[in-house]
Each structure stands twice: as C-alpha cells, then as structure tokens.
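WARN retry 2 of 3 for item q-0093 after timeout on previous attempt; input resubmitted unchanged.
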Amino acid sequence: MSNTNKKLINYIKNKPDVYEKSTSAFWNDENISKYMLKEHLNPKSEGATRNHEFIKKSADWISGLLSVTKNKKLLDLGCGPGIYDELFCKKGFNVTGVDFSKRSIEYAKKHAKEKGMDIEYHYQNYLDIDYEAEFDIAILIYCDLGVLHPKDRAVILNKTRKALKKDGILILDGFTKKFIDDFEEKEIIEYNKKGFWSEKEHVCIQRNYIYKETLNTLEQYLILTEENLECYNIWNQVYTKDSIVSEIKNAGFRYIDLYDDVTGKSYSGTSETICAVAWK
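OK item q-0093 returned
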C-alpha cells in the first residue's frame, strides 16, 4: 500500500481533533490564491470577503466610531487585496494592511500605487506583528478570529492591544449559534479536471463536522491528485455573547460594545454574526 493510500485511509477513518492543522498553506497556494483573489474582487461574491456593498457600509460605520479620521492610524489585520483599506484611505486614515497572501498583497500594493494612494502593506503572518502604541484603530473582521487556535487568538488579541494607542479601538467579529444551527454535517466526493483546489486533475473529498462540546465547525477538504494528498482544515469558533467578551477582556481591553455585525447593526442576539468594539 502506498503512503498516500495510508494517509487517505487515516483521514477517512478518524474525525480530526479540534483545530488540527492543514498539511499545507492555504492562502499562499499558487492556484488557490488565484481563485481567492478573483472572489475578493467580485463585488457580489461572499466567498473570500463580504460583498462590496456591505464593505462600504462597514467602512462608513467603522470610520464613524472616531470623531476625526484625518491622520488617524488604522491597522487592518488580514487585509486581503485592500478593498477596505482604499475606502479607509479615502476617509483620511493612514492605513497599514497586513496579510499572509503574497498574491493579495502584491495586488493591493499595485492597485494602491495606480490610484495614487499612500497605503502601507506588509506580506506577513499577523501573529508576528510587533507594534507598540502606534494605531488609533485596528480591525480583524470577516470572522477571522474564530479561524485561529485559541492560543493564537490570545496572541493576536494581546499583540493588537499592544499595537493600539491609549483609548485605541479594536473591531472584530465572529459567528454565533445561528451559524452552527444552519451548518450541515456532510460528506461529498467530487472529481474535477481542474479547479479551485488544484490546477491538476483531482478528487475532492469534503467533510463537514460539528464539535458541540467546544462550539466549533470544520470544513475539511482532502485533495487527491496522482502525485499527492493534501488536507485543508477550515475551522470556525462559534461565540456566545459571554464567550467573545471573555476572550477580549482576558487580553486586557477595558470596555466592550456589541453589535450584530460590522455595519453597526444593533445587537439582537439573533444574527449569524456578533461584532465587538473594544477599547484599550
């Protein structure tokens, strides 16, 4: 039996441990990142970021949290190709964007230059940032926090707090119980000549799991080509009002407001998302 066959059997017979890692990079895969950038730039798509109409409403609301935006410094963690950042730049912010997709950062830099926008972009894992009292506002949105292992969540929250000035603001969001209620456990096998997961002929085995004890969901994609087998685990943490507040307070933030989403919709507790605005 080949090593690939053994790996596939082990994957199929076992339910992954919570936050078990993928076998290879997702955001920097040459083929996947090409498709992801296309989804980012599609105004109506929600495959990589929210639709652009929502993003505009979100940028308007976030900007309105400060009485003055001109020359205020904003840190965008997981900035992608800079769709939010260009809106913030137009509103007078000095913007720094950080993302671990080389393709997205290259696009963001090129597009900002073409538009004459002075935006600072860094190709970097945002878990490695090391700023101190530099920013007035920071954002970590599209439910990115819940993708991370709990230890990494603590790291990014603490590092973001350190990066903020006194009275600086952090905006983040996450999924709620409604998301897990609508999440379907399933297994799907598909053959593709080429596509999102690989430019080569491949089989995609998708397995969705719910972890009720820890309130996690997993979308696992096993990608089998003639030469290789890759595993991509896409995790999400489901938050309650108390759990998201607790994580943020544990990082030292002193005051937290809650909303249904990152457009500032009043908190109802019935939305698929929950948004927190936290003050240093």
